[in-house]
Amino acid sequence: MSGIASEPGVPMPGATPSTSPSSPSPSASPRRSRSAAPDSRIIGQPAFVLHSYPHKETSLIIDLLSRDHGRIALVAKGAKRPHSKLRGVLQTFQPLSVNWTGKAEVRTLIAAEWVGGLLPLEKSALLCGFYLNELLVKLLARDDPHPELFDHYVATLNQLAHGESPPIVLRQFERALLKASGVAADLTRCIAGGGMVEADRIYVVDPEHGTRPALAADVWPRIHGKTLLDMEREDYRDSTTQTQSKFLMRFLLAHYLGGAQLNTRQILIDLMQL
User: Fold this and answer.
1) Distances, alpha carbon 203 to alpha carbons 107, 119, 235, 236, in Å
2) What pTM does this model have?
3) Could you give the CA distance from residue 42 to residue 226 in angstroms, rounded to a whole number?
4) Residue 160 · residue 121 · CB < 8 Å
5) Strand 106-114 vs strand 70-76: parallel, antiparallel, or unpaired?
6) CA-to-CA distance for 26 and 51, rounded, in angstroms?
7) pLDDT, tens only, 11-26
8) In this structure, how many other beta carbons lie within 10 angstroms of the beta carbon of residue 155?
């Protein structure tokens, strides 16, 4: 479970986020992040802003998802000044090409350029996007590259922007994130005997050990084997799979977050029953 994140070294008390409706709290993260990578100067890295908050009088701290260097923290000096070139660029859900320098945990942004290619998120899709960002900030360790997860994030934003079903799109991303984080890697492998789950049996997923047959005394979500097989195939056409996967992912995320609440998740539940 080495991919689970925490936020040491970048204070956020009382900060008002400039890019999301809620400020992800670093104290809520259940694991420590990895040490900063040794990169000293990076040029032209594909990236997205996940979250930002004020730093001193004129600067911002940016939580960035980069394709080849994972989630990193950058200080954007002078970004709050009225005539800063960065002011209109460092926005969420905009594909960026980013340059930075430094070896510390919080590195220094040199330049950022909007590269385009994605439709903007609107209405409920925008809220879903903020939910993705909050998940990444709270669950993904810093300096832990996941190029495939980055590509999945881009594809998910594109799907949301084109009006694809939010419940299905979000379940697929949640599953990809838990795999990248090193937890819940294979839900279809039964820990009792090591074989594949059977479609017509009922199981529970132990967050720390894996999938096993359900017992009468279990209070965890009871899941059909077919649902677990469907999730592994990313096939959510079945209504039972949609319902059971929703409750399973909600249960697993709550466990890995250590009880920390996802603010955007609660809003989505209230509005859309996701």
Assistant:
1) 45, 40, 19, 18
2) 0.81
3) 45
4) yes
5) parallel
6) 12
7) 333 333 444 444 443 3
8) 14
Q: Is 124 helix (H, G, I), strand (E, B) or coil?
A: helix
C-alpha to C-alpha distance for 2 and 228, rounded to whole angstroms? 24
| Distance, CA of 116 to CA of 46 (rounded, Å) | 11
Contact 87, 113 (CB under 8 A): no
Dihedral pair phi/psi, residue 212, rounded to 5°: -145, 160
CA separation for the pair 203, 227 (Å, rounded): 10
Using alpha carbons, select from 19, 125, 25 the residue that is nearest to residue 65: 19
Phi/psi-derived region of residue 61, left when phi > 0, alpha when psi is between -120 and 50, beta in every other case = beta
Residue-wise pLDDT for 118-161, tens only, equals 999 999 999 999 999 999 999 999 999 999 999 999 999 999 99
Contact present, 181 and 1 (Cβ < 8 Å)? yes
